[in-house]
Design goal:
about 55 residues; alpha+beta; two-stranded antiparallel sheet; 3 helices; 2 strands; about 35% helix
């Protein structure tokens, strides 16, 4: 049976106009990045759009 080897995937984010790897962040900044909640426009604004547009 063959062993599948995985490679590390580098995650980048945009900070102050530059793309930076998350791995270069300090511990607190990494924690902030991974605890973000992403905005879902089609779910949160659907009732507003239906009512006013």
């Amino acid at each position: 049976m063959e062993t599948i080897q995985r490679t590390k995937c580098e995650i980048y984010t945009r900070v102050m106009g530059y793309h930076r790897p998350v791995s270069s962040f300090n511990t607190w900044k990494k924690s902030e990045f991974y605890s973000r909640k992403y905005f879902k426009e089609n779910v949160s604004n659907k009732s507003f759009i239906d009512k006013y547009c």
